[in-house]
Design a protein that fits this description.
By secondary structure, the protein is of the alpha/beta class. Helix content is 29%, strand content 28%. The protein is globular. The structure holds adenosine-5'-triphosphate (ATP) and magnesium ion. The site of magnesium ion has 4 residues, from helix 1.
Length: 336
């Protein structure tokens, strides 16, 4: 059964001149993925730092398993079963995966402080295999990809048997495949009755993985609810205080003649047969996750990279762009 595991009441945290958190309430339950949503600077990471004992709140209380607690240091929060994968890297690049995972909670076997590296390596190997991660316990963290580092941080949380796992923007630099693996791991943690706090700017993530959500705006709680029962526009409204339609009113523009036409544009191994037409007065959106090839297509059209096939025509005439200067001369700009 789901039950409330952690609750914050009226928590405030001030920095010089800034109310990073202003009397917020927050509640999470076991077996749920709880999305924490808000614009840049809304106070999300500050909340994470309060939960992990990095910052102390100015007002309010933290209630864990129904009892009021104080997380005066990160070790106290860790011992209470809370682990976080922070937005900024917190690992030691020159150390191995095992050393990073057991940093701060080494396994020892003697009262004289001798550490049991064999056991730590063995458990690390087991945890990595359990999550189907192809990472060696002896690998140096500096040699891992960003996604692998995130996975190691998750393994670290599991090595402490954390009951509450907080992920601050875990998908921002992952590819589609890596995100799917992460989702799978999150579903596993959920099935094990852990509580997961998931911070993301991406609505795809929130609708895919989260059960419930809390929204912060300017350090205050501006909404909460069940993800499946809430429309995207309502969440955006809670985030920014206005609906998307008001933020970006779409003015009526007559869509005119064809300007740019791209046919079967390809770059071997990167993308294949991309075709589209852009008209005067039109805004054309390209969607896709990290690694889908959106930027690569645009860079090829602009002459930063060379295509291996296809045609590009401007106002009905074929053009050959091999450098950015060619593109600029024909009236294009590229804002990365
Ligand atoms: N250590 C600090 N010293 C001073 N101000 C800080 C500190 N940490 C955060 N702030 C400020 O507090 C506010 C909330 O920051 P926080 O990092 O919690 O936002 P966030 O919601 O995590 O944003 P983002 O989506 O950009 O990660 C911001 O105005 C930020 O500049
Ligand atoms: Mg943040």
């Amino acid at each position: 059964m789901e039950r409330t595991i952690l609750e914050l009441k009226n928590v405030s945290k001030y920095f010089p001149g800034i109310k990073a958190l202003d009397g917020v309430d927050f509640k999470i339950r076991t077996g749920e993925v709880h999305a924490l949503i808000g614009e840049n600077g809304a106070g999300k990471s500050t909340l994470v730092k309060i939960l992990t004992g990095i910052h102390q709140p100015r007002t309010g209380s933290i209630i864990l398993d129904g009892k009021e607690v104080e997380f005066k240091t990160p070790l106290i929060s860790q011992a209470a079963g809370i682990a976080a994968i922070h937005q900024e890297a917190t690992m030691f690049p020159e150390l191995t995966v095992t050393e990073n995972i057991y940093m701060g909670h080494h396994l020892g076997k003697s009262p004289f402080g001798i550490l049991d590296w064999r056991q730590m390596k063995k458990s690390t190997k087991g945890l990595l295999e359990n999550l189907e991660l192809a990472i060696q316990p002896d690998a140096l963290v500096k040699n891992l990809s960003v996604a692998q580092r995130h996975m190691v941080e998750i393994v670290k949380a599991l090595s402490m048997d954390a009951r509450i796992v907080i992920m601050d923007e875990p998908t921002s630099s992952l590819s589609l495949k890596e995100i799917e693996h992460l989702y799978k791991i999150i579903r596993r943690l959920k099935a094990e009755e852990r509580a997961i706090v998931f911070i993301s700017h991406k609505f795809e993530d929130i609708y895919e993985i989260a059960d419930s959500f809390t929204v912060f705006r300017d350090g205050k709680k501006s909404g909460e609810g069940v993800v499946a029962a809430t429309e995207l526009d309502d969440i955006v409204n809670m985030m920014v205080g206005r609906s998307i339609k008001h933020m970006f009113p779409k003015s009526d523009v007559e869509i005119g003649k064809e300007i740019l036409k791209v046919e079967n544009l390809s770059r071997t191994g990167i993308f294949k047969d991309v075709s589209f037409v852009l008209h005067r007065g039109e805004i054309l959106g390209f969607f896709g996750l990290v690694g889908a090839g959106r930027s690569e297509v645009m860079q090829t059209i602009f002459g930063i990279e060379q295509g291996t096939g296809g045609r590009v025509s401007l106002k009905g005439r074929d053009i050959h762009i091999s450098t950015p200067q060619d593109a600029i001369n024909s009236g294009m700009v590229y804002i990365p």
